């Protein structure tokens, strides 16, 4: 499939900048192709910002960066209408949200009020200012970075905000060889400076349209729903995954199938994506937190309990 060749070009291009993180790059592309957004959580200095910049350059997209700080206002994100005394009319000044690829850097360093300015954009790809709705450019993709919540000067993201991120990713520290490779690549100049686009935004929009054509068997959909329903009945989970989470997992599984050059979804796609798509959407009970249970571990336990559909054998052999 030509689409697979295009996707592999994007991945290889990003890997010129981000070393040893192919799985995380693929997850970012899953969210992008599925029409979702990414929450990238990790400690400072592991390459979160470079990941977003490399992705934007690889698809020739209009890129904007929003540096979230405690004094940032919602209008600093979405834009503002300013009265022009010469024309005696209000003129709309675009905010940095008006771009194809938006880096919401350290999103949890600003107040929940400003964080909420992203809700409409993340869900509906438009913003409403002074009663006027402004459509955002397509493709529209937000990659928000955040430091771990226990770090000083951070605010927890509201549940409604978390539910609108398609996947949550952690990069982690590089191993010895990967970090050595980083030093070698940075010796003369940063590789991001010579990175060029391998496809354009119109080609990316075409790739996104192919995702909806990926086939998902009814058994696959039932398997997905059983996993989601388990999160709503688990004693360690106070708030389970919403129907929005079910839809997100289905779209992500189709995008992963496209990346892997398949025209159908396998149960393995659901299993691989369950943690990054579902875990951040759940609220654990006090009992779970006192017992040191994590959302990721609970999802893994659910995956072990829920029976894999027999259609897996049929689809694999076809």
From TrEMBL:
Family: Belongs to the MoxR family.
Protein species of origin: Alkalicoccobacillus porphyridii
Transmembrane segments: none
Pfam name, any one: AAA_3
InterPro entries in the cross-refs: ATPase_AAA-3, CbbQ/NirQ/NorQ/GpvN, ChlI/MoxR_AAA_lid, P-loop_NTPase
CDD domains (UniProt xref): AAA
Protein name: MoxR family ATPase
Signal peptide: none
PANTHER family: METHANOL DEHYDROGENASE REGULATOR, MOXR FAMILY PROTEIN
């Amino acid at each position: 499939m030509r689409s697979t060749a295009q996707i592999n070009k994007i991945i290889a291009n990003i890997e010129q900048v981000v070393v040893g993180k192919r799985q995380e790059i693929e997850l970012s592309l899953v969210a992008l192709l599925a029409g979702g957004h990414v929450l990238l959580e990790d400690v400072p200095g592991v390459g979160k910002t470079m990941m977003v910049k490399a992705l934007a350059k690889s698809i020739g997209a209009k890129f904007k960066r929003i540096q979230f700080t405690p004094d940032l206002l919602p209008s600093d994100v979405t834009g503002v209408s300013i009265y022009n005394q010469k024309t005696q009319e209000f003129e709309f000044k675009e905010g940095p949200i008006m771009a194809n690829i938006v880096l919401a850097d350290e999103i949890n360093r600003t107040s929940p009020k400003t964080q909420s300015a992203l809700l409409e954009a993340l869900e509906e790809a438009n913003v409403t200012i002074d009663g006027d709705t402004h459509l955002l450019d397509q493709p529209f993709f937000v990659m928000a970075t955040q430091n771990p919540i226990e770090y000083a000067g951070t605010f927890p993201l509201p549940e409604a905000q978390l539910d609108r991120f398609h996947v949550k990713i952690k990069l982690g520290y590089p191993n010895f060889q990967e970090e050595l490779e980083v030093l070698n690549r940075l010796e003369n100049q940063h590789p991001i400076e010579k990175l060029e686009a391998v496809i354009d935004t119109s080609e990316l929009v075409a790739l996104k349209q192919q995702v909806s054509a990926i086939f998902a068997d009814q058994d696959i959909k039932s398997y997905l729903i059983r996993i989601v329903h388990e999160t709503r009945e688990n004693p360690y989970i106070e708030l389970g995954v919403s129907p929005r989470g079910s839809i997100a997992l289905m779209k992500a599984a189709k995008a992963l199938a496209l990346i892997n050059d398949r025209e159908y979804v396998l149960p393995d796609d659901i299993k691989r994506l369950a943690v990054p798509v579902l875990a951040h959407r759940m609220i654990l009970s006090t009992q779970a937190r006192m017992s040191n249970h994590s959302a990721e571990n609970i999802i893994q336990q659910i995956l072990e309990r829920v029976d894999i559909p027999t259609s897996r054998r049929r689809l694999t052999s076809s």
